[in-house]
Each structure stands twice: as C-alpha cells, then as structure tokens.
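Proteins fold reproducibly. Take a sample protein:
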Amino acid sequence: MLSAMGWRRSKRSRLSVVVPLYNLAHTLPACLTSVLEQPVRDIEVVVVDDGSRDDSADVAERIAAADARVRVIRQANGGVSRARNAALAACTGDLVTFVDPDDVLPQDAWRPLLRSLARTGSDFAVGMMERVDATGRRTRPPLLARNHASARAATTIDESPLLIADVFPCNKIFRLDFWRGAGLSFPVDTDYEDQVMATEAFLKARSFDVLTEVVYEWHTREDLSSATQRRAQLRNLEDRIRTKQVSLDMVRHYGNDELTRIFYTEVLPIDMWEHFRAAVAPTTPDPDRYWQVLREGLIGIWNDATFRFEESRVPVGQRLMGWLVEKDRRADLARLIAQIDGEGVPVVDGTYRHPWIDEPGLPEALQNA
C-alpha cells in the first residue's frame, strides 16, 4: 500500500466528476453550479447526455462553453449505467466521483474525502449522505447513520463488514486506477445497478476510508404514488432480485462467513417491503405473475440452507410480510398491510399482536416486537 508520505510527494490529484444526464434541463444548472463552486482546484466535469428529449444537452453545452472544466458527451439513450460508463471511459483524472443532475452538493463536499485519501492512500473514501425531500426536510437512513457514526481510516470489508450496505456511488471518491484495475463498471439494462458496483468495490479494495461528515445530499422529488407504481412493475421486481443474487454470489465467493451473515440478514432484506406491498396493491398489473416471481425470488435467497427471512434485522412487520409471502398467503399479507396502514399492529407486553400470533408453528422470531 502507498504510504501517506509517498502520496503527499506525488503530484496534486485531479478529480473527475461524472454526471449522467437525461431530461433534467430544469435541475442541471443548479447542480453544475454547486459542482463548479466546490473549493477544489483541479477538476473536470464529464456530462453524458443520454439521449434527452428535452433541451438538457443544450443547457449542458451552454454551461460547458462558459467553463472549460465541463465537457459534454452526447449519446443515444441507453440508461444511466451506459451514461456513467461512457463518462468513466473519458475521464482523465486521478480520482473520480459521481453527481446526479437533480442533486445539489453541500458546500465543501469533497474536501474531507480528498484529505482522507491523501493521508491514507486508500482505494476510495466514503462519507455520510442525507436525504432531502421537497420540503427541505433532512433525514439520515438508519443503516447509513450506523455506518458513519465513527470515522475509520484505511479499513477493510473484513474489519467493517456492515459497510457493504452503502451502495451509493455519489458519496464516494475512488482512485481511478483502482476503479479500472478492479474492472469496475455499472451493469447495464437493469435497475439497482449501484448495489452490484458497490459490492464489488468493497470486496476488491485493499482499504477504504469511512467518514462521518455529510458529503452528499440526495434530493428526493418523487411522489409516493409514482414510486409505488414503479415497484409494481414486473421488470423492476426481476431486476431487484437479479441484482441481489449477483451481489450475493460475490459476497459468498469472497468467503467471509460473518460478512455473508450480515449480507443475508441486514443488507439484502432492507428494501423487500416495497415489493411485499406492491404484491397486494390493487393497481399492480399481472398480480399472479408478480406474486410468483416474488415468492420464487424470496425463497431462492432466504431458505433453510441459508438464512430465514424472519431471522433478518428488518422490523418485525416486514419479517412477518416475508413469512406470509413464503407461505403463499396473499390474502393474509393484504390483511396485515391494511392493519399496519390503519390502526397499526398493537404491541402488548413486548409482543407484536398480529392476527397470527397464536398460530401453531409461528417462528419464534415473529412472536416478539
């Protein structure tokens, strides 16, 4: 590993900033302004317009004409992964990070990451991120908050296994020679591509740095109804299961039993509730096929040979949803979700009093809140 002193003697690092762009002409100026105003001396910004149908590419070209640090690449529409991969191939910096065109960076977002990498020589650094909704309310996802509660310099995935849950590309700065040497890229033609990329990066890194500072703000403008509709699409579900399986295969091949246990029980289950809900939503198209794919995917990952879903670390209501899916009890799942959304499921003396609490054979993990 490169010593900190040896790294300081090297030339100043240039940071490449990858911005994939599709139909976001209205948010791009604020995004790029926040990028170009960062107090980092040497940056290049590679914007890849992915066949936008609005005037996004023209807006990007006007910004590039006014600032030589910005380059614009146009390509036919192929999805965010192809856009990011095209930008990565064009990057000339020593380091690379990612910014989405509908986000605005906090002031001095990158300095903590850059300073850490200069000290340690690690392959990448990862900082805290906050979710900012349309009202300006800020929240920190619980697992992210746990992971970034304390700083760790030059750690490894064996020493910090829960970091495998941090799948976001935008709160990280990578050394570009590590990225290319490890053969990293974003899988194309699939949703949830970030999980595959991040899993591979954590497994292949010699070391990485973990910071407590907020280095990225994730601006969420999507309303709940549109998010729910997307989760109800069969392809979305298939992509979710596929990327989970690909990432799981990587982790199992890595061969660390504790990391594998954490991946099964704390990382893979955290977003399954979205699809449990979609499976019984009245607007889900082709609900029978959706239910079949959901059950097969759930049982294929969580089973007697691996870990049971009810043994995971998600809230007990979500674990109960997974158990009902496994048992092919669609009507009961709908009943549970209606109860949760209505009066809620009461907790009495530490017991989650759902309708099946006294059912013979109920797993012990589903009996306590």
Observations:
- The CA atoms of residues 244 and 268 lie 7 Å apart.
